[in-house]
Design brief:
alpha+beta, Aminopeptidase, eight-stranded mixed sheet, 5 helices
Length: 196
């Protein structure tokens, strides 16, 4: 989940869970969202962010950080309702100057992975019906439209369980393996040995 991401243009980002020290950098990122981007993310005008606690289980938030400037350029999150449970709402936001570069998709994939790891079995989300880029992204991730009303679509994803790890391969219990010249020497030695 945490890690580095290199965009097609060579820009490098670091993706990691949000921490309390990100409060101001997150507010700065919010300030760099256009009114249009804020409306697409929050479905209404949003003059400022509200504080929310992130416990990284029932509420997860991942940030994408420009390694050159240290600026937060994107956020992906999910949050369960106040009662907790196995369903959560997912949301994404990418600063305007960084949009259409694959950051939203990369964050979304990581958010789904974190949800799966934390026992979330269903993710929901909302988007403006005219936000075709987000709708395409959600479709690629497997989200299905649940309803459309007043220009807003509601989507959901049944989070597939993690694939089980393949069983361990049996270990060879014979003679120790040899490689390179040792293997050739062993074959040559065996070739010169006579069995009586």
């Amino acid at each position: 989940m945490p890690g580095q991401m290199t965009l097609a243009d060579g820009a490098r980002l670091r993706v990691r869970p949000i921490v309390p020290a990100d409060r101001e950098p997150l507010a700065d990122a919010f300030d760099r969202l256009s009114d249009r981007s804020r409306r697409q993310r929050f479905l209404a005008p949003k003059p400022r962010l509200s504080a929310r606690d992130v416990d990284h289980v029932t509420h997860e938030a991942l940030v994408a950080i420009d390694e050159t400037t240290g600026d937060i350029v994107g956020v992906g999150r999910y949050a369960t309702g106040s009662a907790g449970g196995a369903a959560a709402d997912m949301a994404l936001a990418v600063v305007d100057a960084w949009q259409r570069r694959g950051i939203g998709h990369a964050l979304a994939v990581r958010v789904v992975e974190r949800a799966r790891a934390n026992g979330i079995t269903r993710l929901t989300g909302t988007a403006l019906a005219d936000n075709l880029l987000v709708r395409a992204l959600l479709d690629r991730l497997g989200f299905r439209v649940r309803s459309v009303s007043a220009g807003v679509i509601e989507v959901e994803l049944e989070v597939p369980p993690a694939r089980p790890s393949p069983p361990p391969r049996p270990r060879y219990r014979g003679a120790p393996r040899t490689s390179g010249s040792s293997s050739r020497e062993l074959r040559a030695s065996l070739a010169n040995t006579r069995v009586r």
